[in-house]
Amino acid sequence: MADGNITFFLEKLGNFAVQEASLFGEVEGQVRLLRNEMEWMRLVLEDADIDTKCNHDKRLKLWVNQIRGVAYDAEDVIDEFMFKIEHQRQRRPNRFLPTCVRFADKLPFIHELDGRIRDINITIEKILANKARYNIESGSPSAAGSSSSTEGVVQREKRVPIVEEADVVGMTREAEAVKQMLVEEESESRVVAIVGMGGLGKTTLAKKVYNRSEVNDHFECRALVYVSQDCRIRELLMGIMTNLSPERKTEISNMVEKQLGEEVGSYLKDKRYLIVLDDVWSIQVWHELSLHLPESNKSRVLITTRNQQIALDAYAKLYELRPLGEKESWELFLKKTFPIGSTSPGVCPAELEDLGKKITEKCKGLPLAIVVSGGLLSRKEKTKSSWEKILKSMEWHLSQGPSHAWEFLL
What we know:
Layout: H1 5-19, H2 26-45, H3 50-56, H4 58-91, H5 96-103, H6 108-133, H7 172-183, E1 191-195, H8 202-210, H9 213-218, E2 221-226, H10 233-244, H11 249-253, H12 257-268, E3 273-278, H13 283-290, E4 300-305, H14 308-313, E5 317-320, H15 326-337, H16 350-362, H17 367-378, H18 384-399
Parallel strand pairs: 1-4, 1-5, 2-3, 3-4
Helix pairs in contact: 1-2, 1-4, 2-4, 2-6, 3-4, 4-6, 7-8, 10-12, 15-16, 15-17, 16-18
């Protein structure tokens, strides 16, 4: 996770806190606590000199790596939970919300979420306490205003988050193709769209392209924002403007929609910019937002969406994301089932290989399904009987039809 993408994760976490966690009582408090703690972590990691300081202080380097590691774990948990919620929505599109409110106690993953977020919050408390305990100096929080909040790629040193860019195999070719669509001078298309069904890794691909040095060098400024299903234009404009001018975050948060639109338009005027809109559900969002985005200097907007019609209505140049092949699926499965830190990272015991490949095959090349399955197996006993139970559960649920396909993960 690039440190700048913690800001993106906080937006997603904020939307999650409002839209999902509020349905489940006690979980909401834990999510809001997590969000507050992540805000403090972002301030530390956005210190422009943090990496230089780490080179001169081993204690600080260890502490910063612990912060980054727990941030990955937090995103992993939230993404996995959102995947499960989306599955429930697809099964009961008209009855999901009241069902969850009334019978949340009957959904086992609700209790699991609460427990896992509590564990993460406890870990964060310990990490922050270590700063004072070992007299670790990280610098002034005022550095949060640095432009580094939208730049820089940091190598992962802990378990990778769900479908994180460093974790997905076979995306180098895709990232290069999308990058070319963004930077090619002769293109008349203002909008580029990554299109594909849920679970294919559209967000991961968009972030991978966004963080490439060639893209950073080509555009004068960039912003990446998460678009929720019930997104308001004011929230979207505020997210973009905060990306562009993080030092003005407090001032920006107090602006009304009209002011924000004027600020965004004024800032982007005569600049070559890139705006990434992740998970667009409605063409109306694009129509309203585009009024505030100047058409100049070969600027680009990159959107990710499940709905190809949205991309067509935006006159976008399409990149259709396909499922992973057999080889890439297996490599991803190994990374998640036997992560760094395990006894034999990336290596499947011979007696489990046949079962592992059958489980991977059931995921149909969907990175998210492979990652969630692998994450589940990483916490189970590495025995044939344990894996056979998982495979049988998958086969039974798949036999019940598409709406039950991933219920074994819940």
